[in-house]
Queue: 2 jobs
Job 1
Amino acid sequence: MFSNFDFDVIIRALPYLFYEGMSFTLMLTALSALGGLVFGTAIALMRLSGYKTLGRIAGLYVDFMRSLPLVLVIFWFYFLVPYIGQWLTGAARPISVGAFASSLITFIMFEAAYFSEIMRAGIQSISRGQPAAASALGLTYAQTMRYVVLPQAFRNMLPVLITQTIVLFQDTSLVYVLSITDFLGAASKVAQRDGRLVEMYLFAAIVYFTISCIASFGVRRLQARIAIIR
């Protein structure tokens, strides 16, 4: 089966695969995780606030985003939002969003729904006595969240947040549908150019598997360390 397997095509493509493809994948993962975490934390605070309207809006957003396939959201944002922008601004032509901006905003919006649930669980894991004690010391709600609750919630939820980021790293391969040169897109271009589909797709799978396994091992070590601290 592997008698015609060409390792040289992989070796020759390594600089292109990692310098252009993997660097883009890691950048998109990092930016999406950061944006999703900030946006998700805001959504979690909305759901936990005493204002029912804010809680319902945040709940609807989370349920809506989690019920949609990610690839559908990517297509929707890339093809439909330019026309919505044209309608809102009254421009003569659809507003160009671009493949990178579309993918980044989509991932931030999508991941925020998942990160918000993780953060909500983390905030609720903090003893209610601590916010009460902070309030008794004169701290406002915002100060209590900033200095007391959120730091502990982030620490408690860090392994789960990293696990979700690993899933995000794998999901970024979907930007291939927008012809963006991420790692999988770069492997696909080399495979089609050289007619070596088996070699390149097998190598891409091994790389994703290896990185995800190493990251998962790091998460397990982190979980054990946090358990000792507790």
Note: The chain has a mean pLDDT of 87.
Job 2
Amino acid sequence: MVGVILVGHGGMARGLLEAAELILGPQENVVALGLDPSEDPGTLAAAIRAAAERLGTEQLVVLADLFGGSPANAAATLWRHGSRMTIIAGLNLPMLLEVLVSRDASSAADVARVAVQAGREGVRDVVAALRSAMSAREGENESGNAGQTPAH
């Protein structure tokens, strides 16, 4: 099983894990860490390193909230110093859900690909999707009537 470490600003990572567990149930080999405003990013890097050691998995994916943000940079610092973790930025709930359900049968590289795809596909304009679905339904109704003989 691929281990997962969530990192973000404030309580975001913990909140996303709570939301994911509300949907999927309790998760094993997942740690959520946040950078508090008064905390040095170096402290977060040490917490990520400790969490990685505690998880003890050979395959590890770190999901960070923001590319270039302090949490992602803290993880990147560990990677630069030889950690074998895979790091993906842009953490959102659809991404996390897909990662959690795919990590049993996948490698860290496969989980990273799933994360990026799910993260992108999870951002949707709900009103545009509803309009498209309504338009398609109206088109089906019109084409269903097209084959009928008009009444005289």
Note: The chain is about 55% helix and 15% strand.
